[in-house]
Amino acid sequence: MSEAASDFPPPPYTVQEVSTTQARKDLAELVNQAVYGHVHTILTRDGRRLARIIPEEDAWFYTPHWQEKLTRAKDDVAEGRVKTFDTMEEMFADLQADA
pTM above 0.70? Predict the structure, then answer.
């Protein structure tokens, strides 16, 4: 994950870190946790993050396309290029006006 994307709030799924040594022993369980429990496992060696086991349905998030979108969104917020609304109706009206 890009450094900019890591500044976003934590995701709505469980993230765990496991050493590569432990992952070799528990690979089947780690895959099952990803598939059925929506758990992301970060594989580490000597404290360094090396790789991730994630559910296939979440793979889109890590594509360059989406990482770029996250970076641009973070930059927009940091530079004040945002709008706020008091109601959802106001937000939808603004979206429709821009269309």
Answer: no
